[in-house]
Design a protein that fits this description.
heterodimer; A: 700 residues; eight-stranded mixed beta sheet; 19 helices; 42% helix; elongated; B: 212 residues; alpha+beta; seven-stranded mixed beta sheet; two-stranded antiparallel sheet; 17% strand
Chain lengths: 700, 212
């Protein structure tokens, strides 16, 4: 290596001398290392202030020797390039050409045989002085291998580039190299091409649509992450529809996301897609249906639903013999009410989707009118529980014996009510299942929603059908009255929360309108409970009608999310920590600049989101860690409808919030997705993973 | 109130059962052998000409290190003293360290017993012994891909770690000191009776020079 170092010194000296002489074209001296020649080259003979050019390291390995891609495959090591550029020059990420698959015995490497250029765009600031020559340096380290051995190498490469007012063509051979390399770069797939990944058993199926298979080399997917796939595994291909299926083999478990390059014939596309998980050997739909059922079950425990269901269970107290048969029927009709309501919701959602609206679960809560109506409903339910009103008490099963002729209707509407009160809540698992369902044909979507409804209905139906469970329901007594009244308070708490959401969505006017509406509902309940007769009923109805009119009159206001995002120049490390508003372009720019980015997809009406914010995201320790690592924090606020955010959620296969995404500072790394329930430890360990990558990079 | 709680508990238990069922859905790899399963048995000749097999080390932790003294990635860990340090540390704790050479005759890394002994002496390396596997039998049984490729087998003969030696896949000796060593972490956790956090990683290094 001593020889090559001397050559490097010579090269640097020569470059420096060249730099002093203005008006001379770009000059670099190639370094001859063992089995490979290495040289720093630019695609222009003059750097133009305010423009950009490409700077690259050219590798020319001997015949049968190769250097590596960013994921070297089974063995080997990617070349590393550290730029040292004068002030005013900002390098971007290296643009890796599409690699070749290089078998070495039983192993497979990803790399390049023959002349290869690893280039990066370099932005030249406006204020770079003309007439000066730029001293460009690159510290390159590489591993060059053939079938038998590997030789590590390293050199400091230099290039002197004059500053000019117009770009001058590079030497023909170099210009040709840049143009040939450009053709070897993978490109973003056109909108007609669709790539989806699904984990199936031991494999990941990559479904590619909109690409015709042509002759030549079979298609191959190069994963960007070393850990993701087994490099030496065959990738069997099967034609399907207007595309094909590629069967990939993970190294261990199926990765959450797949990023890399898909080579098809003489084209190559960059791919980044989440991997849909399925249940073992069966397909994704079974998993979504199971998740929906689990989500429905858990909904029973949510604060908005639990009071209603607890009371339903209490209504079973003390029933015997003949009543028991009625109760069974009651349970089934209740389930039917729930499922029918979910179908209605699903139908509405699918119809709106078909009409082109950008909707997701929780969309109903983006309307302040719906929020106001729910607040009214919960307030009324609380009044019923507190014995201010009896109207509609049968639906909630309060103080009724299930012997009247209205049995079925009451049971059915209890199911409807359970669904309506469940809408502000999203239980764990539900988001994933519904996100999947909405991307599927209608029958599948309905199956998922049905499963969700059955999950919600299950505990009550179980109690009505299994005598052993029913016998566990306690004996009636005064405690029932106490418990009933106590359960009014979680509902009142829910009202407070809904009013707060409306204040975020629609401002103080909305709060005034809703609170007035609540007073009117309270008045109606009182009148109806206190007096009998047509006059009392008319007064109550009028009060409720006015409350409804007030709810319809509420209009959302434009919030701070309409304000522009902060400019790229704002230094986070020095400024006080603040959350930026969501913008796809901003995230792309930050990632291109090598900045790590954390995105919080949230909404004021999402309880889980609010809890996560308080207990994890906005704790001092998490903020300190983000500051320390220079993470740019972005908040995607979905409280009001937002097409850009809806699309971003869909890209992650989600249809609702919360969603937490962490991009490392490296453009090619797939983003990591944090769990839906956060603790400071979860966030910090995710950030620390980033840190170890960061340290590793700076130590090389 | 007591019975309400029972009802409630039934609900929670049902939900948890559903969750558990979902969480245990199998997602397996194709590579043999699998972490968590019994390590493949083997018999090979060591540098002293003695026949050694995995069964003789039953009751002890065994570390397997795929080795090729000419590979830059192996040199990285020996020239930095990183490998010797780990060998000393783990064998002092009672583990057995077997370096395995699967290079075919004529291929890079193939050595005679004398050449390997000279290497061990020069590097002050202290594996329990070095196994010569010119046919690649042991290498193929474990699916060893690179030098180094590391495996940790626990005292019950179960494979508890397979993969890279550390988390920095470079050939630069300076990186050995700052990287997180997966083998040490796996041994420490397994020996303390804990599950191994990182039990399977992508190995890095030179390809094993198997017989064609």
């Amino acid at each position: 290596m001593g020889g090559s170092r001397a050559i490097v010194r010579l090269a640097v000296a020569a470059a420096l001398v060249a730099g002093l002489v203005t008006g001379r074209p770009a000059e670099a001296i190639p370094v001859s290392a063992k089995h490979v020649d290495v040289e720093l080259v630019a695609d222009t003979a003059a750097a133009v202030p305010g423009a950009s050019f490409r700077l690259g390291v050219r590798f020319v390995p001997e015949k049968h020797w190769h250097v590596y891609w960013k994921n070297p495959g089974d063995s080997g090591e990617a070349p590393r390039i550290a730029w040292t550029l004068p002030a005013g020059l900002t390098p971007g990420e290296i643009e890796w050409p599409t690699p070749e698959r290089i078998p070495v015995g039983p192993l497979v490497n990803f790399g390049f045989e023959g002349e290869t250029l690893l280039a990066a765009p370099v932005a030249v600031a406006h204020d770079v002085a003309a007439h000066a020559a730029l001293d460009l340096r690159a510290q390159a380290k590489w591993l060059v291998c053939n079938q038998d051995e590997c030789i590590p190498g390293g050199a400091t490469l230099a290039l002197s580039l004059p500053v000019g007012t117009v770009a001058a063509p590079a030497a023909p051979a170099i210009a040709e190299l840049f143009s040939a390399t450009h053709k070897r770069l993978p490109v973003a797939s056109p909108p007609t091409v669709r790539v989806d990944a699904t984990a199936e058993g031991d494999h990941v199926q990559l479904a590619v649509r909109g690409v015709a298979l042509t002759g030549g080399a079979p298609p191959f997917f190069f994963a960007a992450d070393r850990e993701a796939l087994d490099p030496s595994a065959e990738q069997p291909v099967a034609r399907e529809g207007d595309g094909f299926l590629l069967t990939l083999t993970p190294r261990t478990a199926a990765p959450r996301t797949l990023a890399g390059v898909l080579r098809v014939g003489d084209r190559a596309y960059t791919v980044a897609t989440p991997v849909a998980m399925t249940s073992g050997s069966s397909d994704a739909s079974v998993s979504a249906i199971a998740l929906a059922f689990a989500g429905g079950l858990l909904l029973n425990l949510m604060p908005c639903v639990f009071p209603v269901l607890a009371l339903k269970a209490l209504s079973l107290v003390g029933l015997s013999g003949a009543a028991r048969r009625r109760v069974r029927r009651h349970g089934l009709v209740y389930a039917a009410g729930i499922v029918a309501s979910f179908w209605l919701l699903a139908g509405g959602l699918l119809a709106a989707r078909a009409a082109g609206a950008e909707l997701g679960w929780g969309f109903q809560l983006q309307s302040p009118t719906v929020i106001a109506a729910l607040a009214g409903l919960f307030f009324w339910m609380a009044l019923v529980l507190l014995d201010v009103s009896q109207i509609g008490g049968s639906i909630m099963g309060v103080g009724q014996h299930l012997t009247t002729g209205d049995d079925d209707r009451a049971a059915f509407f209890t199911g409807v009510l359970a669904t309506v009160v469940a809408t502000p809540c999203t239980a764990p698992f539900m988001g994933t299942a519904i996100g999947y369902a909405l991307g599927q044909p209608a029958p599948m979507a309905l199956a998922v929603f049905t499963s969700l409804g059955l999950g919600l209905a299950f505990p009550y139906v179980a109690v009505t059908w299994i005598p052993a469970l029913a016998s566990k329901v306690p004996r009636p007594g005064a405690w029932m009255e106490t418990l009933k009244q106590l359960l009014a308070f979680p509902l009142l708490g829910t009202v407070v929360w809904l009013v707060w959401i409306a204040s975020v969505q629609a401002g103080p006017q909305a709060v005034g309108a809703i609170l007035t509406g609540l007073v009117l509902i309270g008045f109606a309940a009182w009148v109806a409970g206190r007096f009998r007769g047509i006059g009392a009923r008319a007064a109550a109805a009028t009060a409720v009608a006015i409350a409804a009119l007030l709810a319809f009159g509420i209009r959302p206001i434009d919030g701070p999310s309409a304000a522009g995002a902060r400019t790229a120049e704002g230094g986070i490390a020095d400024a006080a920590f603040e959350w930026e508003s969501f913008s796809t372009a901003r995230i792309a720019a930050l990632r291109a600049a090598g900045r790590p980015v954390f995105v919080d997809f949230t909404a004021a009406w999402c309880v889980t989101c609010q809890v996560n914010k308080k207990v994890a995201l906005e704790t001092a320790e998490v903020i300190a860690k983000m500051k320390q690592l220079g993470v740019v924090a972005i908040r995607a606020d979905w409280t009001r409808p937002d097409v850009e955010i809806t699309r971003a959620l869909q890209e992650f296969g989600r249809d609702g919030v919360p969603l937490y995404v962490l991009y490392s500072g490296k453009a090619d790394d797939p983003p990591s997705i944090l769990p839906q329930i956060l603790t400071p430890t979860i966030v910090i360990s995710a950030l620390e993973k980033l840190e170890s990558v960061e340290l590793r990079r700076s130590s090389t | 109130m007591k019975r309400v709680r029972t009802w409630n508990r039934t609900l929670i238990v049902t939900a948890l059962a559903a969750t558990t069922w979902l969480a245990t859905m199998p997602v397996d790899a194709a590579d043999a052998p699998k972490v968590g399963q019994p390590a493949p048995s083997f018999t090979a000749t060591d540098v002293d000409g003695k026949s050694r097999s995995l069964s003789e080390f039953k009751g002890k932790y065994v570390v397997l290190e795929w080795h090729n003294q000419s590979c830059p990635f192996v040199k990285k860990h020996y020239e930095s003293g990183n490998m010797q340090k780990l060998q000393k540390e783990l064998t002092a704790k009672g583990a057995v360290w077997l370096s395995v050479i699967s290079s075919a005759p004529g291929a890079q890394g193939y050595v005679t017993p004398e050449q390997e002994k000279a290497f061990l002496a020069a590097q002050q390396a202290v594996p329990t012994t070095v196994l010569l596997d010119p046919d690649g039998t042991v290498g193929h049984a474990y699916g060893a891909k690179t030098t180094p490729h590391m495996f940790v087998i626990d005292d019950k003969g179960v494979l508890v770690y397979a993969g890279a030696i550390d988390d920095n896949p470079s050939s630069d000796a300076a990186d050995a000191a700052t990287a997180k060593n997966y083998v040490r972490a796996a041994y420490d956790e397994a020996a303390a009776g804990k599950p191994v956090t990182t039990a399977s990683t992508a190995p890095y290094g030179c390809g094993v020079k198997y017989k064609n």
